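lol ok so funny story. i was supposed to be doing the assay writeup but got distracted and ended up predicting the structure for this chain instead. priorities right. anyway since i did it might as well share w the group, maybe its usefull for someone
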Amino acid sequence: WSSDVCSSDLIYTVSMPTVKWNAATWNGGYDWSSAGEEWSQVWGGSESQWYGSILSRVGSYFPVRTILEIAPGYGRWTRFLLRRCVRLIGIDLSEECVQLCQERFAGYPRAKFYVNDGKSLKAVADGSVDFVFSFDSLVHAEDDILESYVAQIADKFTPNGIGLIHHSNLGACAPGTANSHQRAASMTADKFLAFCSSAGLACISQEIVNWGQPELVDCLSLFTPAGSTWDRPFRRLENPRFMLEAEMLKTISSLYHAAPLSNSR
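and the output, tada:
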């Protein structure tokens, strides 16, 4: 596999999305009236993004008993995850997001949501989690937060647990790389590997991708307890065509998306 590589001809000031920044942004500072769907429009909507870009990558690990979702926001992915588990636990630093999820999924008693401090998983019992998931949220978390979460996840996992975390790779990019999507500047794919190793986990694959720009600013890391059923030699792919996949899914979804029935024939 190759080391983290990212380059850019664009020069911007890199901002640091701290825990304080995240709390202020997502807890009363953001308009959730679109339920987070605005971030999936380049895919043609969250359904197209889930089935085309997310489930296609992790679907072989479902169904499971317990899923831990970190930073669910308004529950854009929660509604799909609930169909693939017996029990779901959502942890978010935003009281507003937790309240919105509690209201949105009130009809699902097997879904519980808790507020944390942006780095703690104390609400989750040790040895109880079969699948950990976080997508399009922890890209705003710096390396100290990811290190804390990974260390705790090692205790929360069942022996054959597995997880997918979408995080920043901006720290591996050339100085001055555009950061219009508020990626964490200190986080890289290599650091996630090191965090897993320190916690007794095996990162079994990483897909380093672009997101709204040419540079490979993001990473999808798949990890499991060392020696688990899923453990295997590490593989890494640098995928600069990730956003082309999104555009293609949007085009395809426009052909097949279900529309309301009409009285006319």
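The chain has seven helices and eight strands. The CA atoms of residues 146 and 192 lie 8 Å apart.
back to the writeup now i swear
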